[in-house]
Amino acid sequence: xxxxxxxxxxxxxxxxxxxxxxxxxxxxxxxxxxxxxxxxxxxxxxxxxxxxxxxxxxxxxxxxxxxxxxxxxxxxxxxxxxxxxxxxxxxxxxxxxxxxxxxxxxxxxxxxxxxxxxxxxxxxxxxxxxxxxxxxxxxxxxxxxxxxx
Length: 149
Ligand SMILES: [Ca+2]
Ligand SMILES: [Ca+2]
Hints:
The protein is of the alpha+beta class. The protein has helices at 32-37, 98-113, 123-126, 136-147; strands spanning 10-20, 25-30, 43-49, 55-61, 68-70, 75-86.
């Protein structure tokens, strides 16, 4: 039993960044399938209303894993950027090991039970099959990655 090479788990993908006027940033990973269809991420922006009736902009990207709702008046700019993922590295410490499995299980159970997801969870890294969701399939792939001979 041995660890697979980290290089084989590195993936280049895109993420959507919405930069607010107050300096905060919202980032949504864009699933890998997207890259096989288009060359540049296409952002669609529609206007919606929140529960208080305030106008919010809803930014969505085809195949995106994230849906970001922000006040359009407070948006400074938005752009896409390429990022290098380390598939399986759910906690972002540059190593793929059992701690990532534990964190991913915590993430999926928090989703099921409506509790807070673990802080520092790297969604795009944990989405092993890049289908835009993190579930038991990804956990299985993570286990297989770690146990791979
Ligand atoms: Ca890790
Ligand atoms: Ca997945």
